[in-house]
Amino acid sequence: MCLLPSFVFAEEIGAVTQLDLKHHFVGYFAVAVTFIVYAIAMTEDLHQLSKAKPMVLGSALIWGSIFVYYSMEYGSAKNVAVVFQNNLTAYAELFLFITVSMTFLNSMTERGIFDALRIVLVNRQYSYRQLFWITGVLAFVLSLVISSLTVGLLMGYIILVIGKDQPKFVGLAGLNAVVAANAGGTISPLGGISTFFVWQQNMLHFTEFFNLTIPCMVNFLVPASIMHFAVTKENPVFTKETPALKRGSKRIVFIFIFTFSLTILSNVFFDMPAIAGMMFGLAILQFFAYYLTKSEKLSHFLIPETRQTIDSKKGFDVFKCIAGVDWDTLLFFYGAMMIVGALSFLGYLDAMAHYLFTEISPTLANIMIGLSSSSIDNGTLMFAVLNMHPPFSMQQWLLLTLTLGVGGSLLAIGSAPALHVLGLMKGHMKEGEGYTFTLHLRWMPAILLGFFASIGTLFLLNGGVF
Questions:
Q1: End-to-end CA distance of the chain
Q2: In terms of DSSP H, where are the helices of 143-192?
Q3: Contacts of 364 by beta carbon, 8 Å cutoff, 6+ apart
Q4: Is 190:206 a contact under the CB 8 Å cutoff?
Q5: Rounded Cα gap, residues 60 and 54, in angstroms
Q6: Does the predicted model carry a pTM greater than 0.85?
Q7: What transmembrane ranges does the database entry give (predicted)?
Q8: pLDDT tens-digit readout, 80-117
Q9: d(CA 267, CA 207)
Q10: Cα(265)–Cα(273) distance, integer angstroms
């Protein structure tokens, strides 16, 4: 996306008559609003208010106060609008990237691909312990190319169906899938928002993320190995089903793989922004949907005995898949990124950067930031750090990417996969059963051990230095 392209954002700010408002009412107001809206968003599970609502309102209030102040002080705030628009440009590309990714996933879901995966796992008659590892490994691998949020929901659904008579298995397997999705998503820019930001800002090249492979595997395997002994050895009993894939499902998988391959290769070899490849893939998916719909109607016309079913065969509408994206998450990131941009403009991020990366060790600071992602969205934190412009080496960027990516696994409120699996369990399990905040907290020491083990592994792989 070239997040704030080539950091024109920083250059544009220099052109704006910028005041130090950290100790002004506007600054205090912005900080107060930020704390309030984040508190409301983080406790979404308690009051059932969508996390996007307070974030969007908070961003509007903060930027509104800045525009009003500059208009009163200088008679115009047109230059401030440049800063706002640069932040908006950064969000626009993230918006499109997530929209395209989730459209592909919704398309594969509509064609029955993931339901077929569930049936295959059930028909193999694995034990609960085997399923614990299979679902964990699948979550780890899938999150390399699919957002960890979606992987968490997918694996949570499969685990619920498989373990409907074993709530303890559902809880442990759900927790394992959350940790695995966060760890796997940290290896790839396509697996998480924070890694996507780092990639698009060219802080790390695509191939450099592979340096995190072993540390992320350690982060997943350490707590999983400890939880393994708490999972029952019994086998679930199911009647065998036959997977039923809709027409075109395999070709949609091929288009999905082609799109992500094209996106990566065009970025690595031609420096093409990731969104260009993603939009090209979306265009192909739209034309394929058109082909499926028209060819289906044609077959009904040519085969008389199928004409009576034509009304029930509506083909494949890709725009319904686009409409099914997670708009709550998209709007949440709008509010979060605009708030971070405002705090940066007001000078708070520069002051924080001076303390974190000058007063204390950058290594310690990056670990602290990673630990804080246990309760604050890692995408927002990474966007904030990028706005601080820290003079990091590649090793420090790897450390920050690792700690922010896996730090969200420490608490159930620390990552999107965990929050969505929590919501999924509430609708299908009795209160206190399955994957819960309390269960996650009980296993937090094991996850924390994996967190520090992954940092130690990265330290050793880098020759004992960061």
A1: 28
A2: 148-162, 167-187
A3: none
A4: no
A5: 10
A6: no
A7: 25-42, 54-70, 90-109, 130-160, 252-269, 275-293, 330-349, 364-386, 398-423, 443-461
A8: 898 899 889 888 888 888 889 889 888 988 888 888 88
A9: 11
A10: 11
